[in-house]
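User: Glycosyltransferase 61 family protein. Structure?
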Amino acid sequence: MGLDQPATSGLSRQFTLVNRDHFPRQNTLDMAKPSQLVVAPGTALEPRPKPAYFAVDQRVADPEKELRLRFETFVETRLGPSFLLSIPGGSVLTQGFFVADQDDNLLVDSFRAYGQVGRYGFNEIKPRVVQRNFPPSIPQRGSAIVLGIQTNANYFHWLMEALPRLWLANRFESLGKSVVLVPDLTPWMRDMLTATDVKPGRLALLSAEATSWETLAMPSRGLANIHTFTWHALQLMDMLRARVKNLAAGAGRRLFVSRSKSASRQIENEDEVFAIAETYGFTRVFPQDLNFNDQLALFAGAEAVAGALGAGLANAAFLAPGGALIEFAPEQREGDAVLFANLAHHRGLRYAGVVGPFCGDQNRAFDRRNFLIPTAAAADAFAAIA
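Assistant: Predicted structure:
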């Protein structure tokens, strides 16, 4: 299913950035008026368990800061709230899936959205007010569910942030016939949608600049911020894992997730690190070479996963409680410094981590640079989960 293309003439529109608290909370979801239903309110902060092993290479720019970020500032974690917004006459704007209500309030539903509005052509004209030219919105009949996000093409964010929206929406019978608004879908994105039992006929490609709906339903994302998961994201991971037919077939498997085929953030000395991993029974895998169903089956049956910080480690969410996750991370990851430590906590996994220094082209953006992992620390990390 596709959406009609807009007229080419542009109109300047101003939007006020608001968060979800702008919408009143209701005990039951009323699709006829702006409201939000909180399905799970989130949890209180709770301490993460001590890592099985953790080390920061002294060659990083600020070793004390790295330790502080990971084990002082964010020594605790929690689950973010799960909720669904109902927006009569709501609009979806641009391929960034920004949502606006009839009063031109632009809903900032993500930790990422503040920084993304500029990338999608919105210009800030004063604090919390942005402006952009749009063709007239194309009115669509019926109701729609917003599934897309600003980073649709990233495996981690589609799995852990976007897809949980659909799992949450499926809890509401009133939305059973609503269309599901999606971006251009890759094969692995389609595989994930199939795994959630969505019927292909419900999918609508968001191809227009601005579309408005009689009722727009926006479930919350699977991440409340870059290191805080939600209840419904974890529920989706449980559902997907339960669909693997023969978990026993992969019991005891240990997987080393390689980034050597990735365009950025490679472990410069990956072969040396993997040589150590191999002595502990790890097999090197390249998730991007596998379809989603094969990735799900591979990781759901494993007992341990190791690899560089990146999308491939998202598959650790499919491990059974009691498994292990070893993360090799570059320095200066302030936002997601504890992302995988938190994932390990919520999935009941033992966690070990090593932070290494940048190397190679220093002109690249810091989050794209390759890095080194000291082999002695890598050996201690593998030994700690052996």
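Residues 11-39+81-234 form one domain. The chain has two domains: 11-39+81-234, 47-77+244-385.
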